[in-house]
Every structure is written in C-alpha cells, then in structure tokens.
C-alpha cells in the first residue's frame, strides 16, 4: 500500500505487516536491546503523545501503520503478527484461531477453527457467524480499508455487504467454531492477508454507517472508555478478554491515554524533559524525532533511552517510462547513476534518520536480495547519455510536495542532474491531493518522489503493485513508472503460483534485481524510526510491522505506581 513514507514529519506506514530481512532483524536499538526494561509491571497508564488522531477507529475503514498498531489493543482477528523485536514481531501467528489455517484445493480453500472462551466486550460470543459478518463488511459501499477481502474471496459482482445483501456463500460456517473460505484463486499466503484490519469479527448486524468510528465493539484486551475526536482517547481493560486465549498481547497497563494535536517539536521536548506523567509516555504513530532534536540526545541518559531501526518502507523516485527520453532505458540508468543518494540521506536528516537505498524492497522484507546496480558515477551516466544521443541535455518535470523534507530531496535530485545538462523543474503539488494527482496517468509528469510500504513481509505486496503492467489504471494508479514489461509480468504470475511462501519471497528478491535492470524507478532511501520513550516505559521494542514504531501490545511501565 502506498504511504507517504517520506517527508511527513514522522515516518508512517505503512499498514503494514512487515518482516525482518533474511539474516537480520531489521530493527535495532541504539543500546543493543529492546530500548527499555523487558518486563513491564502490571497496572498504570501508558500515555501516547501524537501529532494527529487515528484515521478511523473502525477497522473496516482504517488501514495504515499507526492505526493498525492501535487496532491490536481493542480488536483481534483469526491471525496476527507476533509480539517481539525483530523477526519475532513479523511472524504470522494464530490469534482467535487455533492455528494459521489449513489449506486445501491447492490453497484455494482455507479452514479455521476458533479457540474456546472468546467474547466481545458486551459478552456476545465470538463465533464463526461473527467472523463471517465482520469480513463481509468489507463489501459495504461505505467501507474502505485494505483491498484483500474483495481481491481474494469469491463474491457476486453485485454483492454490497451484509447490511444490504445476504451473506456470502464463499465464507462457510458449518458450526459455531469453524470458518471455511473459498478464494477466487490459490493464495498460499492467505494467513498473512488475514492480519489486515478489515478481517476483524463483529457481532452480526452491528457497525452500520460508521458506528464503530465513535463506539467500537472490542474483542481485544482493551475497550474505548472515552473519545474526543482530534483531542484525546482513553482505553481501559475489557473484562471479557481472557489472557488464556491470547499469546500475543501482554496487556500489562490498566489503561492507555492518547493526546492528539501536538506538533513534533513539542512531543520531543516533553519526552526529553520527562516531567510528571511524561515519564510514562511514548510518541504516537511511528514517533520519529525531529531532525533538529538529534543534537540534543547525546547525553548518556538520553542515549540509554534511544531506540532506532528501519521503518520498513522505501522512498523512491518513479520515472514515467512512457514519456519522452525516459522511454529509453539508457537514459533512466544514466539518471540512476547520476543521483548521489548520500545527498538524499542528508536531506532526510542524516544517517540516523535514513540509509541510502539500492534495492527496491527495504531491508525488512523476507527474501530480499541485497545489491547495487547503479552506484554513483557521473562518468557512467555521461556515457549512457551519449549512447542515447542526448548529451546536449533536456528538461524533466519532477512532481513533489511542499514540505521542507520533500523540498530538500527534490533539490538534491535537481542538483545531481545539473552537471549532465538535465534541467529538473520541480512541480509542487499540495500534499492533500498529491497521491491523487500522481496516481492519475493523464496528470503524471516525468518524475515523482514517493514511497511504498508493504502490507506484510512479502514481495507480493511490494513488487506487483508497483510494476505489474496489467495494474496500470487511469486513476489510483500505483505503477508510477507505467512499466509494462512482458517478462516481468510473466514472472509475477509464476511467483504468485508458488505454493511455498518462503520460496516465493526468495523469488521476489531475485525479481527485484530483474526489475531494476530496467531502471523504472530509483530507490532513494530507507527511512528510520528514531524514538525516545519516557524513562518509566518498559517492554518497548520497535516493530517493522508498524512503521518502526513501538509495538503497543507489549509496552507497559517499569513502576506502575509512579
């Protein structure tokens, strides 16, 4: 799912259920551990200081890294991602279900069995009918959220969800504890898709007309006690939740309280000062500190609290392969060689906040291949432009957003191409409409700075959306390069048909390099989350599943009596 992975003041994600790369956890702490004491005490209130409210409390509508993290406190699904630093926090594990599912019919049919003793906050049992109903909500015309229910599960073309239509025959409930899914095609990674928020169960007949945006029905360890949109949110314990049914959520605090509407500098100042209840606080969303704060975290006390790691997204520049000189791969490769990614990293705040990107997929993706086809070289760039017959120069238009980070990145690109006689005109588009504009093929210019975050730890949610030529659409287009390469399309189909998910991820790693041989985009940077939790915070670790932010299901307080 495309996210403004760069240039928003905080690193967000993406959705994203991400994973550690092969051979490494991807997320690290500056002190070499989880960043706070490993075992929280029971009780107390964890406080979250946030710049903005959540997109939606209704999981049928929300779908981004920050809100997905929050959802796990109040909602449960058949599967979820594990709890723990590094790869542990990106494994697909059972949640309401007894296991991650049993495939049949070549992974086109999936069967799940529910655990005993499950109930919603009002005491209604969480049964197969609730699972079926909650998922059917994804077809309601007023819903949004992730596309996976509708992409994967068979449904009539005129189906409009459970509020307007009868139930789906493709989701069977032979008894109260069994759910059987019939998919449109084989999909071996279905347990990963089930971690998306709009697979959340609800009591049948509830939640119409966005009712859950103000009054959710909890299935997790916490429920909403109060909510003032844009200002504050408080969660308290859900007495119907049973720890014996849940191996993921530690649920140590008695409550969580959010304060919304704080600017980044204020959040940094409060967490560094650590006055009063701010010792019990963490930054909301991914919570990355402001670049201006970097120079202030050099004391031993603050260094001991600092946590950092990859946020799990790739910031890149798309090159529209259908336009002018960019239709020539030699020109695209020349531009790739010409851009000094160290200047991009500097524009993003330096090496503590970003690392230069070489592969398309970030280091947090399973099966990723590490390579660098286009190390910075003006000489190679000049030779390729000469071969293409365009040494005399030309002009390109770069679509971009107006915030300081984005502007700095655009200027770095502009300056890198000047010595090659390539003039870059920066076309500034308002942030609120940016993705709508660059996703409209008729409005897209030559270049665009953007970012992508996967929905879970697989190339399947990274490479096909960006490079499958059959996915190019007039609007809401995600293939910004407009690359339609027969060999790449064919390989995408071949990998999608693989029954072994690990083998498929490895194949996507190889496909990553195959795609970059065409240079349709330029990976610029992998941004990092850099956080300083309050001094009384315990059990905190950074999770690649949630934009590199602190995994809320494990966090708590060292001393709950403070």
UniProtKB/TrEMBL annotation:
Coiled coil (residue ranges): none
Keyword Signal listed: yes
Record CDD domains: PBP2_clavulanate_OppA2
GO biological process: peptide transport
Signal sequence annotation: 1-19
A GO cellular-component term linked to this record: ATP-binding cassette (ABC) transporter complex
Cross-referenced Pfam families: SBP_bac_5
Gene Ontology terms, MF aspect: peptide transmembrane transporter activity
Record keywords: Signal
Protein name (database record): ABC transporter substrate-binding protein
All copies of domain Solute-binding protein family, residue ranges: 91-471
């Amino acid at each position: 799912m495309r996210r403004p992975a760069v240039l928003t003041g905080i690193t967000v994600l993406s959705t994203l259920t991400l994973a550690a790369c092969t051979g490494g956890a991807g997320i690290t702490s500056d002190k070499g551990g989880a960043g706070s004491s490993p075992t929280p005490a029971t009780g107390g209130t964890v406080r979250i200081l946030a710049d903005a409210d959540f997109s939606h409390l209704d999981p049928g509508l929300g779908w981004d890294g920050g809100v997905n993290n929050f959802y796990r406190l109040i909602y449960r699904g058949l599967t979820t991602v594990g709890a723990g630093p590094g790869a542990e926090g990106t494994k697909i594990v059972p949640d309401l279900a007894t296991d991650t599912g049993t495939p049949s019919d070549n992974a086109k049919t999936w069967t799940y069995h529910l655990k005993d003793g499950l109930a919603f906050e009002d005491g209604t049992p969480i049964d197969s009918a609730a699972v079926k109903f909650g998922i059917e909500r994804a077809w309601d015309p007023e819903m949004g959220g992730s596309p996976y229910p509708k992409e994967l599960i068979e449904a009539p073309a005129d189906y409009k969800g459970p509020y307007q239509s009868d139930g789906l025959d493709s989701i069977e409930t032979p008894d109260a504890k069994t759910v059987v899914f019939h998919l449109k095609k084989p999909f071996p990674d279905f347990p990963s898709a089930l971690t998306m928020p709009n697979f959340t169960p609800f009591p049948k007949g509830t939640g119409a007309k966005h009712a859950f945006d103000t009054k959710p029905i909890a299935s997790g360890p916490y429920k909403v006690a109060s909510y003032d949109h844009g200002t504050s949110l408080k969660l308290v314990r859900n007495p119907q939740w049973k720890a014996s049914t849940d191996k993921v959520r530690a649920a140590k605090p008695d409550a969580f309280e959010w304060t919304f509407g704080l600017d980044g500098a204020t959040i940094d100042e409060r967490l560094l000062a650590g006055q009063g209840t701010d010792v019990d606080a963490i930054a909301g969303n991914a919570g990355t500190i402001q670049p201006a704060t970097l120079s202030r975290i050099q004391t031993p006390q603050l260094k001991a609290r600092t946590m950092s790691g990859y946020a799990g997204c790739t910031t890149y520049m798309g090159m529209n392969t259908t336009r002018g000189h960019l239709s020539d791969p030699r020109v695209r490769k020349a531009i790739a060689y010409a851009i000094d990614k160290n200047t991009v990293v500097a524009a993003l705040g330096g090496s503590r906040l970003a690392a230069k990107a070489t592969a398309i997929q970030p280091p947090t993706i399973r099966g990723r291949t590490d390579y660098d086809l286009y190390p910075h070289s003006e000489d190679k760039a000049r030779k390729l432009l000469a071969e293409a017959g365009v040494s005399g120069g030309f002009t390109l238009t770069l679509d971009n957003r107006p915030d300081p980070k984005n502007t700095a990145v655009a200027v770095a690109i502009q300056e890198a191409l000047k010595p090659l006689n390539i003039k870059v005109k920066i076309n500034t588009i308002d942030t609120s409409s940016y993705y709508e504009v660059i996703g409209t093929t008729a409005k897209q210019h030559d270049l665009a700075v953007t970012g992508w975050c996967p929905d879970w730890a697989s190339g399947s949610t990274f490479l096909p959306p960006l490079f499958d030529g059959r996915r190019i659409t007039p609007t809401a287009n995600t293939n910004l390069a407009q690359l339609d390469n027969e060999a790449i399309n064919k390989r995408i189909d071949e990998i999608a048909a693989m029954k072994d998910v690990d083998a498929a991820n490895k194949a996507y790693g190889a496909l990553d390099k195959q795609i970059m041989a065409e240079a349709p985009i330029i990976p610029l940077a992998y941004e990092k989350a850099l956080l300083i939790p309050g001094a009384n915070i315990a059990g905190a670790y950074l999770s690649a599943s949630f934009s590199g932010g602190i995994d809320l299901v494990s966090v708590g307080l060292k001393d709950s009596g403070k």
